[in-house]
Amino acid sequence: MGDVAIIFKIMPKSPDVDMEALKATIKEKIPSTQDMVIEPIGFGLSCLKIALVVPDAEGTTEEAEATLNGLEDVGTAEIVSLTLL
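RESULT FIELD:
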């Protein structure tokens, strides 16, 4: 089996969340994080889009999503894109 590239869209719990601190926390919890970009949405709110590469095995995408949703400052984390490498 190969690897899977996943793009997540992460919404913070509030506009007051320190996005740089959130990026550091994500990198610590999920070392396979390849890229992170802060995207402004509007009205002072931004989201974080991250790219992960995980093994193509059962449950790896759900595990990554559960880890992200379990972080303190994360409101929601959803898969935007998924592709086999």
